[in-house]
Amino acid sequence: MLDISIKTFNQLSLDELYSLLQLRSEVFVVEQNCVYQDVDGKDQKALHIIGKKDNIIIAYTRVFKPRKRTPRKS
C-alpha cells in the first residue's frame, strides 16, 4: 500500500527534506543528466506530495499555485 502525504515546506522534517533532495538529485542530475541547480528557492512555496511504501519514498512531486498571467498586448 502506498502512503501519500501532502506537506508544506515547514512541515517537512530534516530527514524528509534530505531524502527528497537526494532523490531529486539522483533522478534529474544523475539518471536524466540534467545538470542544473535543483535547490532553486522554490521549495518554500510548494506543496510537497510524497508517496512512501514501507517508509521509503518511491514517489514525489512538488506543486505550485498557478501563476497569474497578464494579457498580451497586440
Keywords:
Aminopeptidase; 3 strands; globular; alpha+beta; 74 residues; single chain; 1 helix
The span between the termini is: 52 Å
Helix content: 10-25%
Major beta-sheet overview: 3 strands, antiparallel
pLDDT under 50 segments (min length 5)?
none
Strand proportion, as a percent range, falls in 25-35%
Describe this structure in words.
The protein is built from one helix and three strands. The chain has a single domain, classed as Gcn5-related N-acetyltransferase (GNAT) (Aminopeptidase, 3-Layer(aba) Sandwich), CATH 3.40.630.30. Helices cover 24% and strands 28% of the residues. It is globular, with a radius of gyration of 15 Å.
Mind sketching the topology for me?
Blueprint: E1 3-8, H1 14-31, E2 47-53, E3 56-63
Antiparallel strand pairs: 1-2, 2-3
Short description:
With 74 residues, this protein is of the alpha+beta class. Helix content is 24%, strand content 28%.
